[in-house]
Q: What sequence folds into this?
């Protein structure tokens, strides 16, 4: 993030987009843009960028871009989709930039597929009987072949071998069975939603996702059950029929049905969750409890975040938040059992914050859109650890909550967990009591509070993240012990911390930085 000039906040941008000003310079006309035309608009004062086939004039947005003008200019006059996806694919640019839309990219004719493998594969596909499943898979794979014949040939064959779904019915139930053939399938890897007859079942397979997405033949009741046979990787989605009629088919396939794609290529899916409670954690931070719909099956994995989406003054604004536990367990004998219904978010309300102010105005019973989880932290990074260090600043504490609980409960070889918690003042420390109690109760756990703006009564440690502070507090319990240092806070805090740790000799694999 770069400091923005006064009058250039997101709210100011939203106001400008609503002012009726012609932000494209095309007087509301949409145009088809060729690559040559796009390339001509590559200057700050005349800058067009293509994202997913749509071209935007981003010149008026330059001064409002939180990442700065130079970042935007990296994509000037080109297709910025990859760059956008790398940095913040979750930002709802369609809504934010809708007044800057110049038009679509002109479609280039697609070359005929080449290559032996591809032909063989097409013949192979033609021989398969056409039921609703296969038809959809064929369309998808043929589309892929046109884009990248050889790679997709092998990939799609594997997909045929490994992924399939089936369904059957009784008088009252519809059961959809997905055979993932993946060992260690678990509840965090299955996300199911069923709204207005539309069923969406997503299975996470490493960096990929498999989707069953259909407009159901008939209405179903609100509650959906999910059974997972962990060892064999079989997932059952059980729906209750609203009327005891015989279904001729499961339903009409929707766009993503029966596809197996990279997770980053699967758009974020949102469902509306009800705010059921809001409690104070500190003077400016609240614990929000959201309730998932009965028809949703979703567990947010340790170290991952979700996105909240809210319409603010006619623009859809999206911000990431990291779910926590309702409280810090003191007894780590058994894994914390998720009730499957509630998501807890610890959120700092900024007095000038666009999104958090809107969140703070939500009333109990109001709804807010919550996305599927994302994030690149893997529990396997912790599973064989001896020493775990958690460096948190402010609400950068949030990913540490589940991590702490997981490590103390499930990592058998763990010797020490040390939380080094940076805050401005004592009043800002989140869950201080709970952390101190935990340190008393569990001898593996230690907490160190460091304040950057303490009052004169503070007898504890004072300062900001620095090499000397880290060398004092981050020490292996024994020479060559297996260690992980997790860090989260304001971006400069995290970046400086990572650099100091590297300077102190910790390797890339021994450091995990939580970022968007
Ligand atoms: P904004 O309107 O963005 O402003 C926040 C404050 O910063 C205001 O005081 C504003 O004046 C100032 N500001 C904003 N941009 C600039 C700028 N460019 N230059 C100078 N000052 C600026 N937060 C939590 O509270 N809990 C969480 O669990 C949590 N999880 C997160 C997970 C991830 C992966 C990430 C990336 C962030 C997370 N955050 C979390 C932060 C959260 O996403 C929002 O950024 C935060 O809530 C502020 O949003 P806002 O719209 O209210 O504030
Ligand atoms: P804060 O209260 O402003 O700051 C907490 C501590 O960090 C203070 O001691 C502060 O010192 C220090 N600090 C702030 N900026 C610093 C910098 N540039 N360099 C070194 N130290 C710095 O923090 P906050 O308002 O709670 O913000 C938390 C941040 O964490 C947000 O930016 C949020 O986006 C981020 N976050 C990220 C994730 C994630 O990526 N997964 C999850 C949750 C939160 P000073 O007195 O000097 O300010």
A:
């Amino acid at each position: 993030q770069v400091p923005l000039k006064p009058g250039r906040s997101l709210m100011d941008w939203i106001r400008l987009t609503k002012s009726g000003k012609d932000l494209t310079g095309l007087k509301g006309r949409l145009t088809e843009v060729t690559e040559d035309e796009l390339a001509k608009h590559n200057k700050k004062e005349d800058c067009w960028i293509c994202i997913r086939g749509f071209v935007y004039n981003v010149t008026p947005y330059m001064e409002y871009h939180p990442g700065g003008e130079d970042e935007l200019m990296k994509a000037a006059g080109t297709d910025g989709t990859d760059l956008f996806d790398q940095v913040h694919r979750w930002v709802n640019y369609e809504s934010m930039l809708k007044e800057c839309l110049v038009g679509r990219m002109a479609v280039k004719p697609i070359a005929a597929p080449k290559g032996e493998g591809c032909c063989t594969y097409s013949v192979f596909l033609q021989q398969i009987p056409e039921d609703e499943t296969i038809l959809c898979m064929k369309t998808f794979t043929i589309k892929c072949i046109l884009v990248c014949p050889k790679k997709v040939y092998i990939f799609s064959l594997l997909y045929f071998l490994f992924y399939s779904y089936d369904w059957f019915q009784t008088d009252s139930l519809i059961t959809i069975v997905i055979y993932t053939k993946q060992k260690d399938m678990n509840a965090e890897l299955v996300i199911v939603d069923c709204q207005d007859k539309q069923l969406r079942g997503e299975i996470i397979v490493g960096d990929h996702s498999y989707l069953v997405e259909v407009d159901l033949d008939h209405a179903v009741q609100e509650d959906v059950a999910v059974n997972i046979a962990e060892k064999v990787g079989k997932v059952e989605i059980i729906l209750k029929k609203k009327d005891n009629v015989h279904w001729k088919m499961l339903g009409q396939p929707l766009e993503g049905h029966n596809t197996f794609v990279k997770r980053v290529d699967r758009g974020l899916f949102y469902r509306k969750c009800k705010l059921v409670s809001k409690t104070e954690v500190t003077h400016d931070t609240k614990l929000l409890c959201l309730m998932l719909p009965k028809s949703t099956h979703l567990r947010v994995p340790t170290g991952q975040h979700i996105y909240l989406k809210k319409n603010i003054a006619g623009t859809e604004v999206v911000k990431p938040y990291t779910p926590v536990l309702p409280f810090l367990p003191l007894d780590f004998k058994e894994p914390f059992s998720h009730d499957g219904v509630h998501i807890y978010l610890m959120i700092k309300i900024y007095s000038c914050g666009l999104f958090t102010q809107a969140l703070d105005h939500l009333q109990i019973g109001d709804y807010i859109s919550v996305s599927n989880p994302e994030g690149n932290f893997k529990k396997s990074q912790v599973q064989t650890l001896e020493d775990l260090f958690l460096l948190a600043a402010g609400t950068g504490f949030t990913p540490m909550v589940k991590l702490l609980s997981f490590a103390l409960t499930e990592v058998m070889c763990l010797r020490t967990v040390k939380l080094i918690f940076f805050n401005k003042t004592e009043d800002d420390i989140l869950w201080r009591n709970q952390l101190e109690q935990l340190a008393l109760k569990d001898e593996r756990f230690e907490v160190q509070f460091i304040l950057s703006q303490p009052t004169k009564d503070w007898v504890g440690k004072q300062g900001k993240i620095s090499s000397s502070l880290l060398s004092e507090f981050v020490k292996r319990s024994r020479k060559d012990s297996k260690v992980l240092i997790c860090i989260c806070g304001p971006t400069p805090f995290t970046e400086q911390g990572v650099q100091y740790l590297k300077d102190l000799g910790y390797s890339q694999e021994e450091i995990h930085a939580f970022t968007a």
User: Anything to note?
Assistant: Residues 111-135 have pLDDT under 50 and may be disordered. The chain has four domains: 10-105, 164-262, 271-331+338-374, 379-513.
